[in-house]
Specification:
With about 180 residues, the chain is mostly helical. Helices cover about 60% and strands about 0% of the residues. Mean pLDDT is about 90; it is low at about 1-20.
Length: about 180
């Protein structure tokens, strides 16, 4: 009886534990909240998609790590994803899929497995982002049933945004796009 009372209610969504951020993380309050929303979205999708515990663990490790150094001062030319992946590797993370997901989460990567693709989507579609909230929510709802098409839509949106702003498209993003539409 006592165990039942102490167990979390099944319908309640638990807030992500801040302790799951690595000790070396450099994140402010807003970034920590963003990371928590990415984790929660991935947990929701993993549940809906009946993902194995092992794969769910990979998704969540990548989510906790992806912006762990976003608020850190980094050397010129160093991205926060690359810095976090390198630090995680030196701390013992050995899963290449998790490390690639963290390293390239902002631009995409043609060599990704599921963990990279899911992190990319959750980072872009998390509900705390201000722009196009309704559109993002509709896309997020579709992910468990139609992930690959949603992924194409998200990458296309990002490239259109870059083009409208007159900015170059990152070569990794272009390679990622080509890998998605090539078959």
């Amino acid at each position: 009886m006592l165990a039942r009372l102490a167990a979390p209610w099944r319908g309640a969504r638990r807030a992500p534990a801040a302790a799951q951020l690595p000790a070396w993380a450099q994140v402010g309050k807003r970034r920590r909240a963003h990371i928590g929303r990415v984790v929660a979205l991935l947990e929701e999708w993993a549940e809906q998609m009946a993902v194995s515990q092992r794969e769910r663990g990979r998704w969540l490790r990548a989510a906790w790590l992806h912006d762990a150094l976003r608020d850190a001062r980094l050397g010129s030319g160093t991205t926060h994803g690359a810095a976090a992946a390198d630090r995680a590797a030196s701390d013992g993370e050995s899963d290449p899929g998790v490390l690639d997901a963290v390293r390239y989460h902002s631009v995409g990567y043609a060599g990704w497995d599921d963990v990279g693709r899911m992190l990319f989507l959750a980072d872009f579609l998390e509900p705390g982002r201000r722009s196009r909230r309704k559109q993002r929510a509709k896309l997020a709802k579709r992910v468990p049933q139609d992930r690959d098409h949603v992924l194409q839509e998200v990458v296309a949106q990002q490239m259109r945004s870059q083009l409208r702003a007159g900015r170059p498209i990152n070569l990794r993003t272009l390679e990622f796009w080509n890998s998605l539409v090539a078959g």
